[in-house]
Hints:
Helix content: 25-40%
Number of domains: 3
Radius of gyration: 24 Å
Structural class: alpha/beta
Number of helices: 17
CATH architecture of the largest domain: Alpha-Beta Complex
Bound molecules: oxalic acid, manganese (II) ion
Shape: globular
Amino acid sequence: xxxxxxxxxxxxxxxxxxxxxxxxxxxxxxxxxxxxxxxxxxxxxxxxxxxxxxxxxxxxxxxxxxxxxxxxxxxxxxxxxxxxxxxxxxxxxxxxxxxxxxxxxxxxxxxxxxxxxxxxxxxxxxxxxxxxxxxxxxxxxxxxxxxxxxxxxxxxxxxxxxxxxxxxxxxxxxxxxxxxxxxxxxxxxxxxxxxxxxxxxxxxxxxxxxxxxxxxxxxxxxxxxxxxxxxxxxxxxxxxxxxxxxxxxxxxxxxxxxxxxxxxxxxxxxxxxxxxxxxxxxxxxxxxxxxxxxxxxxxxxxxxxxxxxxxxxxxxxxxxxxxxxxxxxxxxxxxxxxxxxxxxxxxxxxxxxxxxxxxxxxxxxxxxxxxxxxxxxxxxxxxxxxxxxxxxxxxxxxxxxxxxxxxxxxxxxxxxxxxxxxxxxxxxxxxxxxxxxxxxxxxxxxxxxxxxxxxxxxxxxxxxxxxxxxxxxxxxxxxxxxxxxxxxxxxxxxxxxxxxxxxxxxxxxxxxxxxxxxxxxxxxxxxxxxxxxxxxxxxxxxxxxxxxxxxxxxxxxxxxxxxxxxxxxxxxxxxxxxxxxxx
Length: 583
Ligand code: OXD
Ligand code: MN
C-alpha cells in the first residue's frame, strides 16, 4: 500500500541524490539523539561548553564572522508572476532560482551527514499549526530547531496524517557571502537556503516558513501569519486579555512579551503571561473573534541589552539549557554580553579572542540565545492550548522621536489596517547612515511578507465581514523624545499603564478624545501615579500636532503609491478621509 510519507521519502531521496551525503539521519527529537549531536559538536569545536555550575546544559556557538545576521538583499520570493512577490520583495523566476540553488547544492553534503528534521509550527494537536520538514547538513540547526519547534517523531506522525508539509532544504555550504541565497517558492511551499548557518537564514521554521511561506498559505486559507508577540494581561478582576503586537526590530518585542508589572500593579493583582515573542498565527474562531497561537516553541532572542533590569524574565529563562551564539565569555566560561550588568567582566570576545574594547564588543550586537519557552517564568499555560488564545487588541508600534503620541486607538478595523500600513521606525545611531530617518515597515512585515503588500493589505481588510468580532487596534510609541533628546516615557514595565488603558477601551470603561488620527487618551485617562512627567512631557506624549500629521500623511501617500495598482481602494479612501480631516 502506498504510504502517506511517499512524497516525503521521494523528496529526501531526490535531495540525497543531489547533495550526496555520507549518511542520512532522520531526527526523532529524542534526548539520546540530542546528547549525541551535542557530543559530536563539542568534539569538533562547533559548540563550546559553558560553565555548567552557573549555566547547566548551556553551550556557546561562535559563527563565522561574516555570517551573523539575516541577509535581506540575498533573500528572494520566487513566484511565477513577478508582480505577486511585489515591490516589497526581491524576486527571481522560479526556474532560474531552482537552477541557481541546485547548482550550489550539487554534491555539497559529500562526507557529511544529512539530517531530516520533521517539525510542527504550533502545538502538535492544534488545527492552527502547520508542519514542515527541513533537510540540513548542520547539526547546530538540528539542536536549535529542537528548541524552536515541536520537532521529531510526533511531527512526522502528523505529517503522515496530513500528507502536507513545507519543504525546506538547507546547507551551510562554504559560508561564502558570494554563494549565499535564501529562496522561497510559496507556490510550491518550498524553501532553499544555502551558504549561511545564521538563525533567520538557517532555522527554516522561523522567518522562512512561519512568516514568508505561512503568510502566503494564510492568505489562501483565510488566516494571518504575523511578526507579532502575544502577551496575556491578567487584571485584578481575574480576566486575561491577550494582546498581539507588531514592532520592527530593536523596539523591545521580547521585553513587552515578558513585561514585569510595576510594584503597585503587582500588589493590586496584575499579572503578565508570555505566549510568544516574535510570531503570531491568527484565525477567526466560531464566535467571530481572532484566535492566536505562537507557532514557535522557543525564543531566539537578542542577548545584548538583556539584564536583570531590562528583562528579568528573559535572564531567568536563559540560566540553563540555552545555546548562546556569538556572546563573549568570562574567565570561568560564563556567557557575557554588553548591558548584562552582572558585575562580571568578559575574558574572550565573540570571536574567541582576548576581549579588547578598542577592537570589538564582547558580544556581537546581534548575539542570540536559543531557549525553550517553557523555561520562561511568565510562560502562559494557554500557550499550549490547541485552540489558541482570543485576541482582544492588536498593537502596532515604532520608534518615533517626534510627532507620534504615546498611544492612540484606531476608529475601526479599516482605519487600523491603515495605521499598520503606516508603521515606521526611525534609524538610530547604532546603524550606519543618517540618524532619525523614517523607514516605513508596514505591520513590521517588510522583510517577511511572502507576497505583494497591496494584496496583503487587502487580505487584512477582508477580515472585517459579517459576524466578525475583531480586536481593537492601537498604535504605541515608547520612544518619544524631549527637546533634550531624552526619552519622555520610562518604558519597560511602565508600559503596562498603556496596556491598562487599552483594556479599559476594550471593556468600554475609559475615555478618549477623537482626533483625525484616532482616539487619544487624555493624561487623566491613564494611571500615571508615581511617574515624574513634566508638563512638556505630558503635552508631547498625549498631544496631537495637526501640521506634523499633515506632512506625515502626505509622505504616507507617496509610500502607499509604491504598491499601486494593488493597494485596495478602501485603504486609499481611508487615507483620503484622514488627510481631509487634517485640513
Ligand atoms: C528578527 C528576529 O530579525 O526576530 O526579526 O530575529
Ligand atoms: Mn522578529
